[in-house]
């Protein structure tokens, strides 16, 4: 266990120099205070969880203090936003403080979001508000606990600094952890600004540090791109299987590591709705829930374009061709497991599609349906769940197919079935209204709710005593919350 001043830095990205990032000091927040910290994320840095309660912790992660070895940098990148190319973006309100390596030899970027203006702030104020910082913190740690690759979050620090959005709010900072903060948009920036040397340097950097096993392949860059395709297919399959809607899948928000990254107006589905749009600025539904699958491929094509100096177009196209079949295989595998199936049959995809259609038509809660399906043997479970459906004949037809399919799958005890299904079907997810409750309390100075919600979501598959209120469908007021994009 380490104390805060014992972190070991090795700032590999900063060493790439000024063409890649700019030195900027964080602009401190007034009266910093700890809102919430993640013990699991602290462990990634070998930090003793007790340090979160020391005053120096809040000072370090609100820009008041810096380690001598930290080298705060704002990264430059660009990206396709809602399908159109924006030539220059970059860290407009976040700073890469440095890279720390832990005792296991893993490197973690420390990225402070909401740290003030940078050369890339454009029209923005460089700040993040408490509300969006809490949402990012809860989502990153909750996704990780669900087994969905994601950036992590160490803590949220609140303050008394006023920040103007639609109304006056308070500034906050979230400390984000990831093995890298390099985005698809980094490659696009050097490609479209025609800087081949720097683009090659970036590609070498990513290959050496993040995909070293691809070095062994005859075409290392192609192997790396293939791996990125595979990781994205798997990540998006998990989003779809668990009902996560990212909301702003611009290429500047896509990580080169295939992890969920840059949280904005994201949402988990309450009722199943394939057409759900969580981002109120997304008028066309470009990033609707079901569109995430083709958009994943669109984004990978944008990255492929930026990699044409290194890889032949034919090879890139072939690698892109892997995306959809891989996505489908991962998705179906997960959905089979969510249904409690251990074997594969040709018609399983149809079984899943039929169920989703019925859920869509009846507005059935996506998370609770699967959880309850595993509570009892198949026949009893479907008999109980039947009441949630409007199209009873449709549901009965599906239930008959399902129970027959389960019978062919194997002869399991009730306990085996429950254990296996509950291990993949969470009881608790980050519903928008739960986040909203925690935010409202935090905005009035009470951080107990955000801390409790974080605890519950850290163990989403296990029923926790006295936490029933976190495993309910949303109340009416919480069903269609408008999440502001001005975060
Ligand atoms: P996002 O939609 O959060 O992914 O942000 C897109 C771009 O806008 C990135 O370059 C951000 O750094 C920048 N940005 C977002 N909010 C702010 C802000 N309040 N101040 C400065 N830049 C911002
Ligand atoms: Mg972003």
Task: Summarize it.
This protein is of the alpha+beta class. It has helices at residues 39-44, 55-60, 130-146, 184-192, 196-210, 220-242, 292-306, 313-320, 323-338, 348-362, 366-373, 378-385, 392-409, 414-422, 432-443, 448-457, and strands at residues 8-9, 21-23, 33-37, 73-75, 79-81, 84-86, 94-101, 107-113, 128-129, 152-164, 168-178, 244-245, 267-268.
List the main descriptive attributes of the protein structure presented here.
487 residues, alpha+beta, 3 domains, seven-stranded antiparallel sheet, two-stranded antiparallel ribbon, 16 helices, 40% helix, globular, binds adenosine monophosphate, binds magnesium ion
From the spread of the alpha carbons, the general shape counts as: globular
Overall tally of domains: 3
What is the terminal separation in angstroms?
35 Å
Strand content: 5-15%
Report the strand count. Answer: 13
Low-pLDDT stretches are none
Whole-angstrom Rg = 23 Å
* Distinct ligands: adenosine monophosphate, magnesium ion
Major β-sheet, in short?
Answer: 7 strands, antiparallel
- Alpha-beta content class: alpha+beta
Helicity level, as a percent range?
40-55%
What is the H-and-E element order? EEEHHEEEEEEHEEHHHEEHHHHHHHHHH
Number of helices: 16
Query: Mean pLDDT score, rounded?
Result: 97
């Amino acid at each position: 266990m380490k104390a805060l001043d014992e972190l070991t830095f090795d700032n590999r990205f900063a060493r790439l120099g000024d063409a890649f990032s700019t030195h900027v000091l964080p602009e401190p927040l007034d009266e910093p205070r700890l809102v919430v910290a993640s013990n699991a994320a602290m462990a990634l840095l070998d930090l003793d969880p007790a340090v979160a309660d020391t005053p120096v912790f809040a000072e370090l992660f609100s820009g008041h203090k810096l380690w001598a070895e930290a080298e705060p940098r704002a990264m430059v990148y660009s990206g396709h936003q809602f399908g159109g190319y924006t030539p220059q973006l970059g860290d407009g309100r976040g700073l890469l403080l440095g890279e720390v390596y832990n005792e296991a030899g893993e490197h973690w970027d420390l990225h402070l979001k909401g740290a003030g203006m940078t050369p890339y702030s454009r029209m923005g104020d460089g700040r993040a508000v408490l509300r969006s910082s809490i949402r990012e913190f809860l989502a990153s740690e909750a996704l990780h606990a669900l087994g969905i690759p994601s950036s992590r979050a160490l803590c949220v620090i609140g303050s008394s600094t006023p920040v103007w959005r639609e109304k006056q709010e308070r500034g906050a900072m979230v400390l984000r952890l990831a093995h890298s903060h390099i985005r698809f948009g980094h490659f696009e920036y050097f490609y479209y600004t025609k800087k081949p040397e720097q683009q090659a340097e970036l590609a070498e950097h990513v290959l050496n540090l993040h995909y070293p096993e691809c070095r062994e392949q005859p075409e290392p860059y192609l192997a790396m791109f293939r791996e990125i395709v595979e990781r994205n297919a798997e990540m998006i399959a998990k989003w779809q299987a668990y009902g996560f809607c990212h909301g702003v899948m611009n290429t500047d928000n896509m990580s080169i590591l295939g992890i969920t990254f840059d949280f904005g107006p994201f949402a988990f589905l309450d009722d199943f709705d394939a057409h759900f749009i969580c981002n109120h600025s997304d008028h066309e539904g470009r990033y609707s829930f079901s569109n995430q699958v083709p958009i994943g491929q669109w984004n990978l094509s944008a990255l492929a374009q930026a990699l044409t100096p290194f890889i032949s177009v034919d090879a890139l196209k072939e690698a892109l061709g892997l995306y959809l079949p891989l996505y489908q295989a991962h998705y179906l595998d997960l959905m089979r497991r969510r249904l409690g199936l251990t074997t594969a049959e040709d018609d399983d995809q149809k079984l899943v599609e039929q169920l989703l259609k019925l859920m869509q038509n009846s507005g059935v809660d996506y998370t609770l349906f699967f959880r309850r399906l595993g509570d009892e043997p198949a026949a009893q479970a479907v008999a109980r769940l039947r009441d949630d459906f409007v199209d009873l004949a449709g549901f009965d037809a599906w239930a008959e197919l399902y129970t027959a399919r389960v019978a062919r799958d194997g002869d399991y005890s009730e306990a085996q079935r429950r254990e296996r299904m509950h291990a993949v079907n969470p009881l608790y997810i980050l519903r928008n209204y739960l986040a909203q409750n925690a935010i409202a309390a935090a905005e009035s100075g009470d951080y107990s709710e955000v801390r409790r919600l974080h605890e519950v979501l850290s163990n989403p598959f296990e029923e926790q005593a006295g936490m029933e209120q976190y495993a309910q469908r949303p109340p009416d007021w919480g069903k269609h919350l408008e999440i502001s994009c001005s975060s």
